[in-house]
């Protein structure tokens, strides 16, 4: 059996048993609430582990045409297609692979409704102009937001032709009461539309797999919403499914000291863990110890001056060659991997429940080369 200590870094390690822990919470929520859960592929689309995930969920939802194809091909069950902006070709490409097509605007819906086949239901994203989303960049309630139709812009006669509606207004929301308040707001604001549709997707960002989250209370809130409007409720979890299941393992390749001791590792947030940078959210290192006497910056090996994983402390001085485990690196990471600086791409592994380690993907120089060109102009 392959020993983890012999794997070349950098690599992601998906822990199947931790994934199943989250999936059991998904299952519990479904059973108690009657809601259906579709995985948001934009957060996590490492389809090599879909055999583990699919039995617990009802399908997938997407943010772009290739995710629709991937969900249809590798996950099965229900395939929801959503896009902020479809081209005509996009709609043609996804139509026969989708159970539901959700448009972001009334103009997209009007332009493409004739292309939606009989078997496929039509939904529209609505924007309740309220959210529990934290950072402005990811907040659909930010001023002039293009995501979904607001109440004042909604043409209620058009809405008669809809099968369902979608809302997405949470991000890592750990509070049932704030989620319930958002639903009360939606119920009042959009009561006419809600009485006409047969399903409502409440989007992602509800962090019900967080330790201690009161799943029963959430289930009750969802059930009441579903009863009040006589609709099938959906949630579209991404991060909640994948949280705390996956580590990024890196090696210290150098230690420099320009006023602060900085361990340089064989990975970069800009290439392999982009949200650390975009949202300015420092990573956690499993080997660190809160009161350790040896502080370090965990610096990346990209050329970007501010690219670092975190600042943290250790009980012992770090050594070149030592491995560090960047915790909780599953959601919004593998989907955003890029080849910036020509760094080595992390391999992707899964530790199965029985302890065996499966390699889902590994990359080499040719992969880097081929993302940029397949041939040179002189050979065409
Ligand atoms: C991002 C997104 C999701 C998933 O959000 P998580 O925070 O990962 O649960 C679901 N639905 C829509 C429309 C999204 O944009």
Structure notes:
One of its GO terms (biological process) is lysine biosynthetic process via diaminopimelate. Belongs to the Orn/Lys/Arg decarboxylase class-II family. NspC subfamily. The chain folds into two domains: about 5-10 and about 245-370, Lyase, Ornithine Decarboxylase, Chain A, domain 1, CATH 2.40.37; about 15-240, Alanine racemase (TIM Barrel, Alpha-Beta Barrel), CATH 3.20.20.10. The protein has helices at about 15-35, 50-55, 65-75, 90-95, 105-110, 175-190, 190-195, 215-230, 240, 270, 275-280, 365-370, and strands at about 10-15, 35-40, 60, 80-85, 100-105, 120-125, 150, 165, 200, 230-235, 245-255, 260-265, 295-300, 310-315, 325, 345-350, 355-360. It contains twelve helices and 17 strands. Helix 1 crosses helix 8 (about 215-230) and helix 6 (about 175-190) runs parallel beside helix 8 (about 215-230). Bound molecules: pyridoxal-5'-phosphate. Pyridoxal-5'-phosphate (PLP) binds near residues 82, 168, 171, 205 and 239.
